[in-house]
């Protein structure tokens, strides 16, 4: 593996973690807004 592809993989991994945590926080805030009846 070249240095360039390793850096790309690292950036992709960090972006995936960031996207996942943002999505999890968004779902949590929306379900808190709707309460136990409107949430999942």
Quickly list its features.
rod-shaped; mainly alpha; 40 residues
Tell me what you see in this structure.
With 40 residues, the protein is an all-alpha fold. It contains one helix and no strands. The mean pLDDT is 85.
Secondary structure topology:
Elements: H1 3-38
Query: What is the number of E strands?
Result: 0
The end-to-end distance, rounded to whole angstroms, is: 43 Å
Strand content: under 5%
Task: Please provide the ordered H/E string of secondary-structure elements.
Answer: H
Class by helix and strand content?
Answer: mainly alpha
Count of DSSP H/I helices: 1
State the share of residues found in helices, binned by percent.
over 70%
- Outline: rod-shaped
Largest sheet composition: none
Low-confidence stretches: none
Mean pLDDT: 85
Rg to the nearest angstrom?
16 Å
Write a short abstract of this structure.
The chain has 40 residues and is mostly helical. The chain has one helix at 3-38. The termini are far apart.
């Amino acid at each position: 593996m070249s240095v360039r592809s390793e850096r790309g993989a690292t950036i992709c991994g960090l972006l995936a973690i960031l996207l996942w945590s943002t999505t999890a926080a968004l779902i949590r805030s929306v379900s808190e807004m709707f309460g136990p009846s409107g949430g999942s």
